[in-house]
Amino acid sequence: MENWTPVKLNLIAAADQNMGIGRNQKLPWNIPSEFHYFLEMTTKPHVSSSNCQNAIIIGHRTWETMDAVVSKPHPGALNIVLSRFNPPEPLTYPNTIVCASLDHAVKRLSTDPEYEGLIDTVWVLGGAEVYRAALNSQYFHRLYLSRIQAVYPCDVFFPEEFDEDLFVRVSNDKIGDNRVPRGVQKDEATGVEFEVCVYERRDEEGRKQSTSI
């Protein structure tokens, strides 16, 4: 068996009260303070090192519409586009690579000498199918979910695999990142409230307890 330590996958998403995350391949809302938090987390490494950057993983459909939400490629990060068809277009952008699957991306980040010691946090940015694969992955670490306290017209929803009975919320002290806002936030520009909730998968004992209640 190969001896390598895999990177951990952190999902970051925002969802309304119905767990909607998108409409017409775009965000259904414009909440500046929540978007600022998202950029702070994904574009800047948690550790202070000029040689370190984050990596973001997205599906090819999300890549195609990325410039409607943020710049393409995602700034300050290694961009990994998932596609089995090896599309050439992403490779015309700097700091962007294509991987055939989520497992392929994890292995490349974990074993390629080009990235050794240079990747801080690996963020999964969607879309829904990539979120689903990451939730089911053995490399899943945490879900950073902005719960928006409003309802918007959506045609894409966060995967049903996120069953809160199988996850446990992580305290801010354990997260240890002051970029993650504490408690309910009210966006000054729109008045919309949201709360960033961070989840880990329950351990085996916790799963047994939750399913026996």
UniProtKB/TrEMBL annotation:
<dbReference type="GO" id="GO:0046655">
    <property type="term" value="P:folic acid metabolic process"/>
</dbReference>
<keyword id="KW-0560">Oxidoreductase</keyword>
<dbReference type="GO" id="GO:0046452">
    <property type="term" value="P:dihydrofolate metabolic process"/>
</dbReference>
<keyword id="KW-0521">NADP</keyword>
<dbReference type="GO" id="GO:0046654">
    <property type="term" value="P:tetrahydrofolate biosynthetic process"/>
</dbReference>
<dbReference type="Pfam" id="PF00186">
    <property type="entry name" value="DHFR_1"/>
</dbReference>
<dbReference type="GO" id="GO:0050661">
    <property type="term" value="F:NADP binding"/>
</dbReference>
<dbReference type="InterPro" id="IPR024072">
    <property type="entry name" value="DHFR-like_dom_sf"/>
</dbReference>
<dbReference type="InterPro" id="IPR017925">
    <property type="entry name" value="DHFR_CS"/>
</dbReference>
<comment type="pathway">
    <text>Cofactor biosynthesis; tetrahydrofolate biosynthesis; 5,6,7,8-tetrahydrofolate from 7,8-dihydrofolate: step 1/1.</text>
</comment>
<dbReference type="GO" id="GO:0005739">
    <property type="term" value="C:mitochondrion"/>
</dbReference>
<protein>
    <recommendedName>
        <fullName>dihydrofolate reductase</fullName>
        <ecNumber>1.5.1.3</ecNumber>
    </recommendedName>
</protein>
<keyword id="KW-0554">One-carbon metabolism</keyword>
<dbReference type="GO" id="GO:0006730">
    <property type="term" value="P:one-carbon metabolic process"/>
</dbReference>
<dbReference type="InterPro" id="IPR012259">
    <property type="entry name" value="DHFR"/>
</dbReference>
<dbReference type="GO" id="GO:0004146">
    <property type="term" value="F:dihydrofolate reductase activity"/>
</dbReference>
<comment type="similarity">
    <text>Belongs to the dihydrofolate reductase family.</text>
</comment>
<feature type="domain" description="DHFR">
    <location>
        <begin position="8"/>
        <end position="201"/>
    </location>
</feature>
<dbReference type="InterPro" id="IPR001796">
    <property type="entry name" value="DHFR_dom"/>
</dbReference>
